[in-house]
Specification:
Distance between the termini: 55 Å
Shape: globular
Structural class: mainly beta
Radius of gyration: 29 Å
Mean pLDDT: 94
Low-confidence stretches: 1-9, 11-17, 855-864
Number of strands: 58
Length: 864
């Protein structure tokens, strides 16, 4: 039986729904570019030529997750009506085609064309595969087009720029006009792990000589990627030109994961000099509690896991910085810090400070390392009290689950189980692992397996489960099911992880009834398997093991505050408001309970302070303060010298998991960027390109008179509702602690866009925006520093498009871009205030016409 139909039958589902028209799928953006199907990430080669905007992009032509990197292609006459074109530059057996840029070689400097028919030239990163003599390297290569960007020929003498580096990538090339006449091509590219932008020059695009380097500077908590360098007139003054260096970073963004930062400064044709790099900070004012600078832990109790090659994870003394095998650790102060990478990520342990009396309002400290939050008090893997079923799958050697009365189909026939390989944190020697079922091991093994009957004699069933999961719209089932009277009454799955962890069902409603357990694996591809062990009947739900890397405040034996790293070796300031604990005894506990990627914690400089420390990340200049604006670069060869940028509207933290099909990922709206003078110097402002606002179909709702917003949430009239719209709103916080607007709501869920008066921050809260459970890092509250204007107002322009919000505050000085996945039909708009009364000054709602799928490209005149 076919996988999909079997999955439907197993789930008790009816006939499969009719195919949805492309463009009408749930979550499909109406005004943002998405490919018809398959994976997309970074925008590449964006260029305007002969009346067409070309958007090339990282694309997997064969699947809906990252892989097979090639250049996809789309064109538009107006930046909003995009037409997908055939694949432009495909992967081959020698190389993947990573990010880069396209130039119009007007003078045929490359010789690929003629003076009468100049070529378009793509400069891209060749990520060489094992079959290539350059295997493992990343170098810069060329391809050229003689038919206006439709088809491309790779240059026979590639690569044209090779540093014998595995992380040299993302060339952005532009023509630089020398002040004294003439000019040359300039390339910016990155050494990603060194946090450097490298500048080169060329007269012909084929031969490159070094100019200079920029960096490290400001945010260095992740890989530097996708640089861009361009001039802008400050406040439109051609006599005051500044250059902007864009550097995207992953992880280490201001909101977590992927983001783009920028620097404003000077470029003299050789060197970029930043005028906005932030100096290193000093310790916050207050009383030091621990700094680890005397070569000892100074009274802290250290519990290192025994049996490791080294005395890890913490050793006997503070680290002086970076440990063996670790990427460079920065951001700590003084000569020592806690660094649990001693012996790598594998060892587990904890450290506890001496007790102290809380006598300040804040506890500030530096933290880095892995992003594994605390989830429970349980740090071990011991089973809960109860009755073990199926003997924990510990059948006698030489026998199988078939001998124990299990039945099954396909690769999960019980004669293939239990397995003795795969997974972590199982108990005993044997477990069910569908990766090892039948034939050759792999994620494509499929089948079902059903247990003998057992009696539900306790209120809960608890078990260790790992491996993958599948969303309802994937057409695949991958889960453990509880059957009562032959019906599926409960199900669960893994979390795309090798480690098994405790999960439970409340089965009290079925007390005394016979039941069966069924494992269903109809999944293929990555994480297309399940691991299962130690199924139990218990009186209470099992507590999940906390695979944390954390710093915790303990008061009266209870953890009352906790923080974790951001998957970065750069420490940054964290703050806890501890005023409520003044006069009480407390201690600090540092926990490393994670064996795998980023399974370590960094901590330093605990200071009792009257005020919170400002994270360094918040002091840097960011293109966007949301979670979903990355790899952003600008169009080349633009008419009227406009600077239009476009970013990938996703985040590597969860990019492969967002619940969209048959496509995955969208581009942001095109944004026109400018420089304006601020008290801190020239800074970027951004606004959606004017063509986006040209999609407006007329105002559907407006209020122009000031009125109060009472505490609570107040739905606007239905005329303001929508899923594809622009909302312009001005409000004054008044006495409210928070106030703003909610969108894509249905009475139970919504995306909250508001202003926090005390913090002086704009925020987007998507923690209750709809579908947030597909990845543990998705739900978030993202904020940007925003000051009220001279009239005490905050003015927002919000673009809502089915599965995203892009918020431009105070004429574009700050932006927040976030994906959201609202419940079906959610379209309500409401105003809210908390802790007092705010004032609505004005609001205008403008529906936007669909520009993607089913709408022909519209030629426009004089709108470049």
């Amino acid at each position: 039986m076919a996988g999909l139909s079997l999955a439907a039958a197993l789930a008790g589902a009816g006939p499969a729904p009719a195919a949805v028209t492309v463009g009408d799928e749930q979550y499909r953006p109406a005004i943002h570019y998405t490919p018809k199907q398959n994976w997309m990430n970074d925008p590449n080669g964006m260029v305007y030529y002969k009346g067409l905007y070309h958007l090339y992009y990282q694309h997997n032509p064969s699947g809906n997750t990252w892989g097979n990197m090639s250049w996809g292609h789309a064109t538009s006459t107006d930046l909003v009506h995009w037409k997908e074109q055939p694949l432009a530059i495909p992967t081959d057996d020698q190389q993947d085609i990573f990010s880069g840029s396209v130039v119009v070689d007007k003078n045929n400097s490359s010789g690929f064309g003629t003076a009468e028919k100049p070529p378009m030239v793509a400069i891209f990163t060749s990520a060489y595969k094992d079959a290539s003599p350059y295997r493992g390297l990343q170098a810069q290569s060329l391809a050229y087009s003689l038919d206006d960007g439709q088809t491309w020929t790779k240059y026979a003498a590639n690569p044209v720029l090779n540093r014998n580096s595995a992380n040299f990538r993302d060339p952005k090339v532009f023509w630089y006009d020398s002040p004294g006449g003439g000019g040359y091509w300039v390339m910016t590219a990155v050494e990603a792990t060194e946090h450097k932008v490298l500048l080169y020059k060329s007269s012909n695009l084929k031969e490159w000589t070094p100019l200079s380097e920029f960096g490290p500077a400001n945010a260095t908590g992740g890989l530097w990627e996708c640089p861009d360098l361009f001039p802008l007139a400050v406040d439109g003054d051609p006599a005051n030109i500044k250059w902007v260096m864009v550097v995207n970073i992953n992880p280490g963004g201001v909101a977590g994961g992927s983001a783009g930062q920028y620097f404003a400064g000077r470029f003299d044709g050789t060197t970029f000099t930043s005028e906005s790099t932030k100096a290193s900070d000093s310790l916050p004012a207050g009383t030091p509690l621990a700094g680890f600078n005397d070569g000892t832990y100074n009274g802290w109790t250290v519990n290192n896991e025994p049996g490791n090659w080294k005395n890890g994870p913490f050793g006997d003394a503070p680290a002086a910085g970076t440990l063996a095998g670790q990427n460079g650790v920065t951001g700590f102060a003084g000569t020592g810090l806690i660094n649990s990478f001693n012996d790598g990520d594998w060892p587990l342990g904890a450290m506890n400070s001496p007790e102290f009396t809380v006598d300040s309002d804040y506890l500030n400290f530096l933290v880095g390392g892995g992003q594994h939050p605390r989830v429970s008090d349980k740090l071990d893997n011991t089973p809960p009290p109860g009755d073990l079923l199926f003997n924990g799958f510990e059948v006698a050697d030489g026998s199988t689950l078939a001998d124990a009365g299990w039945t099954g189909t396909g690769d999960l026939a019980p004669a293939f189980q239990p397995a003795t390989a795969g997974g972590d944190f199982f108990i005993g020697a044997k477990r069910i692992n569908t990766f090892e079922a039948g034939g050759a091991p792999g994620d494509d093994r499929q089948g079902t397996m059903t247990s003998p009957s057992f009696l539900l004699s306790r209120n809960f069933m608890s078990m260790l489960v790992g491996g993958g999961h599948r969303t309802a719209d994937s057409g695949q089932l991958l889960e453990v099911q509880l059957l009562v009277n032959g019906n599926v009454v409960r199900s669960l799955a893994g979390d795309d992880a090798g480690a098994l962890n405790w999960k439970s069902w409340d089965v009290s409603e079925f007390a005394g009834q016979p039941a069966q357990l069924r494992i269903v694996d109809q999944a293929t591809g990555g994480w297309g398997h399940l691991t299962l062990d130690h199924v139990m009947l218990t009186d209470q739900a099992a507590v999940p093991r906390s695979d944390e890397t954390t710093v915790n405040l303990v008061v009266d034996g209870q953890v009352v505050r906790t923080a974790t790293g951001a998957n970065s070796e750069v420490l940054d300031w964290a703050s806890w408001n501890v005023a409520e604990f003044k006069g009480r005894r407390a201690s600090i506990r540092v926990v490393d309970n994670n064996r795998f990627g980023w399974g370590h914690i960094l901590a330093d400089e605990f200071v009792a302070s009257p005020r919170p420390a400002t994270p360094r990340l918040q002091s840097y200049d960011w293109l966007d303060y949301g979670r979903d604006y990355y790899a952003s670069v600008s169009f080349g060869n633009m008419p009227q010298d406009k600077r239009i940028m476009l970013g990938w509207m996703n985040n590597w933290d969860y990019a492969n998991s967002i619940p969209t099909t048959p496509w995955r990922s969208a581009m942001s709206l095109p944004r026109e960027v400018a420089l304006t003078q601020t008290a801190s110097g020239p800074r970027l402002t951004q606004k959606a390109a004017q063509q986006v606002d040209g999609l407006g179909t007329g105002v559907s709702y407006a209020e122009k008179r000031t009125r109060n917003i009472a505490p609570g949430t107040h739905a606007l009239p239905a005329a303001a509702f929508g899923q594809v719209q622009r909302i312009d709103v001005t409000l004054a916080p008044g006495t409210a602690s928070k106030a703003g607007i909610t969108v894509l709501g249905n009475g139970n869920t919504s995306t909250v866009i508001g202003y926090d008066r005390a913090a002086g921050e704009l925020f987007v809260d998507r923690s209750n925006s709809g579908n947030t459970a597909f990845h543990p890092l998705f739900a978030s509250v993202d904020s940007a520093p925003v000051s009220v204007d001279a009239n005490g107002n905050v003015t927002l322009r919000i673009y809502v498009d089915r599965s995203s919000v892009e918020v431009f505050a105070q004429n574009g000085l700050r932006t927040i871009t976030d994906q959201v996945f609202p419940e079906q039909g959610a379209n309500q708009v409401a105003l809210f205030a908390e802790g007092g009364t705010a004032q609505l000054k004005s609001i205008t709602v403008t529906p936007l016409a669909k520009s993607m799928f089913g709408t022909a490209e519209k030629p426009t005149k004089n709108r470049g």
